[in-house]
TrEMBL record:
Receptor for bradykinin. It is associated with G proteins that activate a phosphatidylinositol-calcium second messenger system. It comes from Acanthochromis polyacanthus (spiny chromis). Keywords: Cell membrane, Disulfide bond, G-protein coupled receptor, Glycoprotein, Lipoprotein, Membrane, Palmitate, Phosphoprotein, Receptor, Transducer, Transmembrane, Transmembrane helix. This is B2 bradykinin receptor. Forms a complex with PECAM1 and GNAQ. Interacts with PECAM1. The lineage of its organism: Eukaryota, Metazoa, Chordata, Craniata, Vertebrata. Belongs to the G-protein coupled receptor 1 family. The chain crosses the membrane at residues 37-59, 71-90, 110-128, 148-170, 200-224, 244-269, 289-308. It comes from the Eukaryota. The keyword Metal-binding does not apply. It holds the Pfam family 7tm_1. It is a multi-pass membrane protein.
Length: 346
């Protein structure tokens, strides 16, 4: 059985309801064996790195900037994904026998689907914020306020959940006699509904946001070139923040665009617009490679914060300084109390 992204596994993938009878490749044996290990490594690293990022943003004494509000929510979305992935790793290790029940089947896959939707729209907000800050510098003070950023994040989480409603509705755990397993899969009421839901996801989770991100990234790069040539020392803080944001945007495009393109081709295959065993085999193999690349993005983002983000590294130093000061004060207070106690003893 070809392994697909957990958010898109459907009954048609399990029993070949599309009428094709392409033979499974021997490559799936080693893919099924290696995937759980890779997913667990990504999960552990992603949880540790994203918890670290969120801890720094939460404990720093200064309030977050607009860009940092968006990036902290992106870290939260990545944390949501990597926290759900171990369940899917266990599922693959058990040959797609889902051992966690119907409720967890729905919740885990909603969490994965929400990450895919929310993370890209947080980057849309990040791109728009940098675009306004650098291209429309005269009006950015009125538009870029933390309260608006928090409202935008709240709406993004709500929109991400809305896009996950089909997953919540149609995810089921049922016995599949062809493979003798209890599988957690998407059981759509009809093939038309399946294609409609996949089409909506491609439009709202790929075409629209990628177009906005690409436009903003292009404009940001042009603005940075102009500022570098014309004003070397101007708005250094904005440029530092923009460099980090630009790195995160480009990393996201590299990691996720191939996955979404393959997903779109896969939908065309299931809609019988395209066909052929050779193309299906190529798409399935590409699906695996680009799944791995997409998952790695949740680990890559925190690394970029540390390597590229000078302001973030400064925050890390200041948080550790806060901790060291608190430890020193606490230690001195304890010694003082102990000394006072000893003095009062007869």
């Amino acid at each position: 059985m070809a392994v697909r992204w957990p958010g898109s596994l459907s009954y048609g993938d399990l029993n070949n309801t599309n009428g094709t009878h392409c033979p499974d490749l021997e490559a799936w044996d080693w893919l099924n064996a290696s995937q759980p290990v890779y997913i667990l490594i990504i999960s552990v690293l992603g949880i540790v790195f994203n918890v670290f990022v969120l801890t720094i943003f939460c404990l720093h004494k200064k309030p977050c900037t607009v860009a940092e509000i968006y990036l902290s929510n992106l870290a939260a979305a990545d944390l949501l994904l990597v926290s759900c992935l171990p369940f899917w790793a266990v599922n693959i290790a058990y040959d797609f026998n889902w051992p966690f029940g119907r409720f967890m089947c729905k919740i885990i896959n909603v969490g994965i689907k929400m990450n895919v939707s929310c993370s890209i729209y947080f980057l849309v907000l990040v791109g728009i914020d940098r675009y306004v800050a650098l291209v429309h510098t005269m009006s950015h003070g009125r538009m870029r306020r933390p309260k608006y950023a928090k409202l935008g994040c709240l709406l993004t989480w709500g929109f991400g959940f809305l896009l996950s409603v089909p997953t919540l509705t149609f995810r089921e755990v049922k016995y599949v006699p062809e493979y003798s397993i209890e599988a957690c899969f998407l059981e759509y009421p009809s093939h038309t509904v399946e294609l409609l839901c996949d089409g909506m996801l491609i439009i709202f989770s790929f075409i629209i946001p990628i177009s906005i991100i690409s436009f903003c990234t292009f404009k940001i790069i042009l603005a940075l070139k102009v500022q570098t040539i014309g004003r070397v020392n101007a708005e250094k803080t904005e440029q530092k923040a923009t460099t980090l944001v630009l790195a995160v945007l480009l990393a996201f495009l590299i990691c996720w665009v191939p996955f979404h393109i393959v997903t779109a081709v896969d939908v065309l295959l299931r809609a019988d617009v395209l066909g052929g065993c050779h193309l299906e085999a190529v798409i399935d193999i590409c699906n695996q490679i680009f799944n791995y690349l997409a998952l790695f993005n949740s680990v890559l983002n925190p690394i970029l914060y540390v390597i590229v983000g000078k302001n973030f590294r400064k925050k890390v130093r200041e948080v550790f300084q806060q901790w060291s000061v608190k430890k020193t004060v606490t230690s001195e207070s304890t010694r003082s109390n102990l000394t006072s106690t000893l003095k009062t003893m007869p």
